[in-house]
Amino acid sequence: DVISRLATEGVKVAPKKLLLYNNLLSNSSCMQCAEESWVVLQSQLDSASLCIKPSADGCSTGVARLRNANDLKLYSSAVTANMASIPPNTLTDQRSPIPLPENAFCPFIVEPFIETADIQI
Predict the structure, then answer these.
(1) Residue 87 has what DSSP assignment?
(2) Within 1-121, where are the H helices?
(3) pLDDT average, residue stretch 66-87
(4) How confident is the model at residue 4 (pLDDT cuts 50, 70, 90)?
(5) Mean pLDDT, the chain, as a whole number?
(6) What is the pLDDT of residues 83-108, one digit of tens each?
(7) CB 31 within 8 A of CB 45
(8) How many other CB atoms are found less than 10 A from the CB of residue 84?
(9) Quick one: which of 115, 113, 19 has its CA closest to 73?
(10) Helix-strand-coil split of the chain, %, nearest 5
């Protein structure tokens, strides 16, 4: 597989986990479920904060940084409620709205959130 070959040459790819609609549904209705999911995802992905996005969309629709279990619960609630977007200041340190995909039933990818430096030209 291409990614495995690139890894042998030093190219790294962030680990990913898939969340299905049923996972989001249980996280949206149960804080304990969201907390348990958060702990598992953090452990498996070895990251303090996570990035979630729809697997079916190739653009920035639905991409969000999750900093805690409450963010996971709120994101899950917005998706399962079929909201058009997550309003600003819903998630921790979220300043602008996050448009959500029309198809909430697609799987969602969760991966480590990777801090990058600002680039100025």
Answers:
(1) P
(2) 2-8, 21-29, 31-45, 69-80
(3) 97
(4) low
(5) 90
(6) 999 999 999 999 999 999 888 888 99
(7) no
(8) 10
(9) 19
(10) 35, 15, 50
Count CB atoms within 10 A of the CB of residue 60. 10
Structure tokens at 58: 């190739």
Residue-range domain boundaries for the chain: 14-112
The answer to whether 70 and 91 are in contact (CB under 8 A) is no
| Of 53, 31, 29, 50, the residue nearest 41 (C-alpha) | 50
Q: Which fold has domain 14-112?
A: Dna Ligase; domain 1 (3.30.1490)
Question: Does 7 score more than 80 pLDDT?
Answer: no
- Residue 76 is encoded by which pair of tokens? 């899950």
Residue for token digits 């690139």? 6
39-61: pLDDT as tens digits: 999 999 999 999 999 998 666 78
| Cβ pair 67, 115 in contact under 8 A | no
